[in-house]
Amino acid sequence: MYLGAHVGIADGLAKAVEVGRAFGCEAVQIFSKSPQMWNGPPTSAESAAAFRAAVRKEGLRATAVHHGYLANLASPKQDTLERSRRAFVDELARAELLGTDALIFHPGAHLGSGPEAGLRTISESLLGILEAHPEGKVRILLENAAGQGTTLGTTFEELASVLATVNRPERLGVTLDTCHLFAAGWDFRTEEGYGRMVDRVESVLGRATVGAFHLNDAKAELGSHLDRHENISRGQIGREGFRHLVNDPRWRETPGYLETPLDDRGYDRYAEDLTTLRGLLRAKPAKSPPASRKRRASSTVK
């Protein structure tokens, strides 16, 4: 697995790459603008070129843009839905300009319209966006949800329904967040539990759909449906849950981005988490489990 983290862009897009590499990232995820804004200043060609050059210079293995928090491609409210689709197109264009591998987004919430209607609206949104931008190279990754409220994408089946409806595997996939998986009820702390979960991923989604992981421990109990991230090995998942994941050869070339909490030590917290994860790696790849420096951080992702 290519280990990395979500890095802030307060000091510039290219600087985010340099900072991430400095504290040990092989892969870097960013926001392309403030996640709390519908619209942000345009990304200049110069800053995009500097970002791409920094990625090459620093030898990153993977990059991603994480979509902002306001858009909801499942909204039953037409004005919000249209605004969300425009925001998504803008984010996708930014990711294309930056040359990132992926655009990661939360599928959305049905807000009372029901899961079936919400999933249909997400699919219609993505179909329209991809039809309008057929030549794109960035892969769009739906992130699994913890299951709070009316959020969609908590189950593999919900994610699979969108993938099947859109049917563009070269452009669409999933990001699996470990905290969200645990909060949704998947106990992968044992070899057997991890094997059952991955078997289910492969049978329902397909291994090739998994384009990234978000590596977060969980503050809340198994099945809590609470999206509360914790630093690696300090939460309910613990070291063993991550040991199985980072040693699984199926994910050898898949990026895993930290979104763990930061404090006044800044990215030193990320460096500690990366050290913990790398300490779990075995010298040789394991067989697939059986079934049954202190810098200013702009923001992290939940």
Overview of this protein structure:
With 302 residues, this protein is an alpha/beta fold. It has a single domain (2-279), classed as Divalent-metal-dependent TIM barrel enzymes (TIM Barrel), CATH 3.20.20. The protein is built from 9 helices and 10 strands. It has helices at residues 13-22, 45-58, 78-98, 115-132, 156-166, 178-183, 191-205, 238-246, 268-279; strands spanning 2-6, 27-30, 62-66, 102-105, 139-143, 172-177, 210-215, 217-218, 229-230, 255-258. Strands 1-2-3-4-5-6-7-10 form an 8-stranded parallel beta barrel, surrounded by 4 helices. It has a two-stranded antiparallel ribbon with strand order 8-9. Strand 3 (62-66), helix 3 (78-98) and strand 4 (102-105) form a beta-alpha-beta unit. Helix 4 runs parallel beside helix 5. It is globular. The two termini are 21 Å apart. Residues 291-300 have low confidence and may be disordered.
